[in-house]
Specification:
Helix content: 40-55%
Number of helices: 9
Structural class: alpha/beta
Strand order of the largest sheet: 7-6-8-5-9-10-11
Number of strands: 11
Distance between the termini: 43 Å
CATH architecture of the largest domain: 3-Layer(aba) Sandwich
Order of helices and strands: EEHEEHEHEHEHEEHHEHEH
Oligomer: single chain
CATH class of the largest domain: Alpha Beta
Number of domains: 2
CATH topology of the largest domain: Rossmann fold
Radius of gyration: 23 Å
Strand content: 15-25%
């Protein structure tokens, strides 16, 4: 095994606009490349020369590396969640949308229609309160409220706790589907892996049809784009073709559905989809 005993990097140019995380990631990329160029598997010492007019302080690297360490830890936990979920048998579905798009309402009507044909567990993510969990609990299924205490997204450690809580509410710890209702936010939740199998993005008609174009990262990794509250189409400037075109431009393999859960619109197709993925993707 070869080592680079001393590695010297220099930052001379002015770069005040670089985010701390980007700075640390750039440094790691340089280290990886230099190690590869020298056939090294270990770097023992790194010396960094920072020019006085660069606009970078050493704390920027410390902050950035701490963030990367956290990201690595979250990724490892997400992998553990995947293994845990597979041992429980279900398909895990991460539901992402803006506040008020109808995630909880969709779940309520989904549970009404599925009945006892599939064993379902639900995690409800919110900053505070148990209001959504109370709504779901009325349907008689295991449900866990995950309170983030101010964070704008769920993360893998929180979902890990939720999985154990769901197991305790089940007679044998087994499920067919687990719904993870994420925070009402189209930005932050998209960048955090929870260990799910399926990611569904919901956009309601009152929000507008430009959301896929405005939030490409969120839609890039989605398995389904669901337009909700479509019974309101006559009353809003929501252009279905625009929304579909932009979503498919970002992800040509994405499934697209149109629903209005209280009116029953699109619900038959949605239930059929859930039953199909439960058969084809389930770990049981």
């Amino acid at each position: 095994m070869s080592c680079l005993q001393n590695l010297f990097l220099s930052f001379k140019r002015n770069c005040p606009a670089i985010h701390e995380l980007s700075l640390a990631q750039a440094l790691l990329s340089q280290l990886e490349q230099l190690a590869a160029d020298n056939n090294a598997t270990t770097i023992l010492i790194v010396r960094v020369d920072i020019g006085k007019d660069v606009g970078v302080v050493i704390d920027s690297f410390t902050f950035g590396f701490d963030a990367i360490k956290t990201e690595i830890a979250l990724t490892k936990q997400a992998d553990k969640n995947r293994q845990h979920i597979e041992s429980m048998g279900p398909v895990a579905i991460n539901m992402i949308s803006s506040p008020g798009s109808g995630k909880t309402t969709l779940l309520e009507h989904t549970l009404d229609r599925i009945g006892d044909t599939l064993k379902i567990g639900v995690m409800e993510g919110d900053i505070e309160t148990e209001r959504d969990a109370k709504r779901i609990r009325k349907n008689g299924v295991p449900v866990v409220q995950l309170a983030t205490d101010g964070a704008c997204h769920l993360d893998a450690p929180l979902v890990h706790k939720g999985l154990h809580a769901l197991e305790h509410q089940s007679k044998n710890g087994k499920f067919d589907l687990i719904f993870i209702e994420n925070m009402g936010n189209l930005v932050c939740p998209a960048t955090f892996d929870l260990g799910k199998h399926i990611r569904i993005i919901l956009v309601s008609v009152p929000e507008g049809s430009d959301k896929p174009a405005k939030y490409p990262t969120t839609f890039n990794g989605a398995d389904m784009f669901m337009m909700t509250k479509t019974d309101l189409l006559p009353y809003f400037d929501f252009f279905v073709e625009e929304a579909e075109k932009e979503a498919l431009r970002l992800n040509p393999d994405m499934n697209i559905m149109k629903t209005a859960a209280p009116a029953g619109l699109g619900m038959d197709s949605w239930i059929s989809y859930l039953k199909e993925i439960s058969k084809t993707l389930s770990g049981s």
